[in-house]
Design goal:
By secondary structure, the chain is of the alpha/beta class. The protein has 13 helices and 15 strands. A hairpin with a 2-residue loop joins β10 and β11. Bound molecules: adenosine-5'-triphosphate and magnesium ion.
Length: 394
């Protein structure tokens, strides 16, 4: 898949922008706060309908204006797609694919073979299915993007919720049924927690019967989530071990271990057993919303025993595995957006990342060109950004 061009109007610090990308490596460089990430954000918006930074539409509209426009031209399996997005300060956004407003573009579902998912979309899922979800889901999958930012390097150091988010993002990208199960699980979880509060406040037989029903649903969807995550981590392990071994010159061997909070076979029993505790704490204590991942390097937990460098290297291997897995499943290449990550890596790892990019379209932002020149990276197009103005330098 290739992003051919992006046009912006009154988007962040861009009054107007028209950029045509090369199908290989594109570099966007410039000083801090000039508008580099804003460009990547606008591309990401067109694949998920949301900002990767979690910004609201009204924050994206250029200061002093009422509306923003994004126009993205994409080539996928020799088919052209044009995504038009119209952001408004106080109204919901309008989206059209090839001129057809997205709500009517149901036929697109046949073409879409993957679901793209961003961290921000998990918040929608927590809110339960809504009009917004329907819209976003229709957009997912037309554009397959892997977004890599410095924060991704902290996945091992971060709390378990980040690792669950990683699993959910990736799985939802590859498996629509998983996404639907996740939406349902989170809905049930919210309802159950609400009910637990009601029971703690004024217990009644009727409420306890309702709790039985929610428990059954929780176990049903929870088990589907656990099974999905189990098989996903199995797939990741077949890919990541080779990548990590090459990345560390054969010194380190990595294994990602899925640590479900409860086993599929025990979930029903555990929910029963923790009922009184749940009522006391007014929250569901057991289930996949408490799962975690452990990264083992040479059999040791890298979160506990690894150096910062080892943790970041493991995170890089994980990100590279993501690209490979997306390629395998969708049988197409995603577009890779690298937001200022190279400067976070030492030169060996920079080299490895650059060499791993291979033939996928990549858009990189950075403050200077040194890293690329030092690594003799093949650059196909260079853009310099200054205060919301982009100049093509080659
Ligand atoms: N709604 C908006 N209207 C106008 N300008 C905005 C708006 N939102 C953000 N900006 C401006 O965009 C600039 C930041 O852009 P961006 O985050 O793309 O910078 P960057 O080049 O990636 O910087 P860094 O190297 O620090 O990451 C800031 O100058 C900010 O004031
Ligand atoms: Mg930036």
């Amino acid at each position: 898949m290739i992003v051919e061009s992006v046009e912006l109007k009154d988007y962040r610090n861009y009054e107007f922008l028209d950029m045509k990308f090369n199908e290989h490596v594109n570099i966007i460089y410039g000083d801090n706060a000039q508008g580099k990430t804003n460009i990547l954000e606008s591309i990401y918006m067109c694949s998920t309908s949301k900002s990767h930074r979690g910004s609201k539409d009204r924050e994206i509209v250029r200061f002093g204006e009422d509306e923003s426009h994004i126009k993205l031209n994409v080539l996928k399996h020799d088919m052209k797609y044009r995504i038009d997005m119209h952001l408004k300060k106080n109204k919901t956004k309008g989206i059209a694919v090839n001129g057809i407003p997205i709500k009517k573009a149901v036929e697109l579902f046949g073409i879409i073979n993957i679901v793209f998912f961003s961290p921000e979309d998990l918040n929608i899922i927590k809110d339960g299915p809504s009009e917004r979800i329907k819209k976003a889901v229709e957009l997912f999958g037309i554009i397959n993007i892997v977004f890599f930012s410095p924060e991704d390097l902290n996945i091992i150091k971060d709390g378990p919720s980040e690792r669950r988010r990683f699993m959910d993002m990736e799985l939802s990208q590859l498996d629509k049924i998983y996404l639907s199960n996740l939406v349902n699980y989170n809905k049930v979880l919210n309802q159950r927690n609400k009910l637990l509060k009601d029971i703690a406040f004024a217990p009644s037989e009727q409420l306890m019967e309702t709790l039985d029903i929610w428990d059954m649903q929780l176990v049903k969807y929870g088990n589907l989530i656990i099974k999905g995550r189990e098989s996903f981590i199995e797939k990741i392990n077949t890919i990541i071990s080779g990548i990590h071994s090459r990345l560390t010159g054969g010194i380190e061997n990595i294994k990602v271990s899925y640590v479900p909070d409860v086993d599929v076979n025990d979930f029903e029993e555990e929910v029963k057993n923790s009922r009184q505790k749940d009522i006391k704490y007014k929250a569901t204590g057991k289930g996949p919303h408490k799962d975690d991942l452990i990264f083992l390097i040479n059999d040791n937990d890298v979160r506990k025993y690894g150096s910062q460098g080892q943790q970041r290297t493991a995170a890089l291997s994980l990100k590279l595995s993501e690209i490979e897995l997306v390629k395998l499943v969708i049988k197409d290449t995603p577009v890779l957006l690298l937001d200022d990550v190279l400067s976070e890596l030492d030169s060996n790892r920079q080299n490895f990342l650059i060499n791993s990019i291979g033939d996928i379209q990549t858009i990189v932002t950075c403050t200077g060109l040194d890293e690329f020149i030092n690594n003799r990276m093949n650059i196909n197009k260079i853009f310099k950004v200054t205060d919301g103005h982009v100049v093509n330098e080659n």
